[in-house]
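Field notebook, page 315. I keep forgetting to write these up properly, so this time I am using the form the group agreed on. The chain and the ligand, ketopantoate, are recorded exactly as supplied. Prediction of the bound pose follows.
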Amino acid sequence: MKIVIIGAGAMGSLYGAKLSAVTDTPVCLLDVWQDQVKEINARGLTVEDVSSPEPRVYRNLRAFQDPAGIGPADLVIIFVKSTLTAQAVRTGRAVFGENTPALTLQNGLGNIEGIAETLPRTSIIAGTTAQGATLLGPGRIRHAGKGKTVIGELDGSISPRLKAAADLFNRAGLETEISANVEGLIWDKLLVNVGINALTAVTRLRNGGLLAHEELAELLAAAVTEGVRVAGAKGIKLNVPDPVAHTREVCAATGENQSSMLQDILKGRPTEIDMINGAILREGAAWGIAAPVNGVLTKLVKFFEKTGAGERGPA
Ligand code: KPL
């Protein structure tokens, strides 16, 4: 099975490495970052794991900056930042054959719509992941938190391609389930990111740090609760019975991880704030639901996007 991953950041690299251990054909990683591509092709991808003393080097991978050299894949996983989804799929068009499923496991709202600008909606599978990974430098990541991957078809069917992808992920050690409620799934994960990402970016704490401070745990709960109200107004059926408790669980399970938004702020990169807390604010306004905590978090993260990590120093 030929797998292509668009976006070889922390999460794309993690899934690429794990899947490369169970595929005969090398997993192809597509990314514009030249140093990452060079390093992976020269020395493989090194994964440090918080639960094992020795890092593991994965070599059944090929990295590319240009999709022309790859050819059509059997499965494409999209892992670029949600701000770049539409553009990345357009640029990577050549890796999608007529029947290639496009799987998005990205954070935030708007990824399905971004992919559908280039590909038919029927080619899209969506899902979420509670894995946590940190990019340490070219060719090196830390697997800093384990959690479930859940995937589903947009029409709720349990298709053979969905089962095949779930089987493959499970064989690779990425615990995966199937869901018939993909919209609920995306909102379940959105609410986790609403509670964790901006707060960790602002405080520079690792995910687990949010639970150690009462004030932050309260803000986490307030931000998620606003999101739950918006989801309710939109008629989204969440799969998670208690999103605040669930977010706290993910915080604990990925306690050692720096959230993706904190990593972005520390590296001076744009964040996904508009697709996460900003999305709650926008959707809330459309449905007449106030989301003041998400509003403040959005503004603070935008401030740090402008001023950079230097203001507070590294975490
Ligand atoms: O999705 C994540 C992220 O960092 O974006 C979590 C689950 C919060 C792990 O850090």
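OBSERVATIONS:
- The chain has two domains: 3-180, 184-307.
- The mean pLDDT is 95.
FOLLOW-UP: compare against the apo run.
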